[in-house]
């Protein structure tokens, strides 16, 4: 009888282990999909920001150069200064965008590592201690981790975009002030 009971326990344990493994694999798949979606969202947002910056500043360069050229047709220096200021502005904004991209990538990589570690630990625990409660706890923990990953990634995206916009506004204000200051100077023909 004892031998029969042992076989039954082994069967139940085997079935529970298989069920736990299926749950863990499913959760891992969900985590991977969520992370892929978040990464795609980050890439789209960053690309859109960069495209908008490029388009806006191409327009700004053309407008400023045309206006300065018309107002001070005799001064090549006026146009040169305006172009230099705008080029510096574009460089600053590109650097900001790159920093935002790097920050987002670093955050996502860290989050992926955390998720992988959690899942590995969970798999080990499920294999060693086969209990329904453990499986439930595993699912809850992984779901919480996924939620945290998504929330943090979205926050990073939002903060990054806000930072880019703030820097753009700040640099634009400085550009306008410099152009106004330059416009008050006496033109010197070259």
The residue ranges in which pLDDT falls below 50 over 5 or more consecutive positions are none
Main sheet specs: none
Helix and strand content put the structural class at mainly alpha
Helix content: over 70%
| DSSP strand content | under 5%
Rg of Cα set: 29 Å
Shape descriptor: rod-shaped
In N-to-C order, the SSE pattern is HHH
Mean pLDDT: 67
The N- to C-terminal Cα distance equals 108 Å
How many strands appear in the DSSP assignment?
0
**Count of the domains:** 1
Q: Helical element count? A: 3
Task: Fill in the keyword field for this structure.
about 190 residues, mainly alpha, about 0% strand, rod-shaped, transmembrane, transmembrane helix, ABC transmembrane type-1 domain-containing protein
Structure summary:
This protein is mainly α and 190 residues long. The chain has helices at residues 2-71, 76-128, 132-184. The protein has 3 helices and no strands.
List the helices and strands and how they pair.
Elements (H helix, E strand, L loop, with lengths): L1 H70 L4 H53 L3 H53 L6
Helix pairs in contact: 1-2, 1-3, 2-3
Describe this structure in words.
The longest helix has 70 residues, at 2-71. The protein has one domain (2-184). Helix content is 93%, strand content 0%. Helix 1 (2-71) runs parallel beside helix 3. It has helices spanning 2-71, 76-128, 132-184. The mean pLDDT is 67. The protein has 190 residues and is mainly alpha-helical. It has 3 helices and no strands.
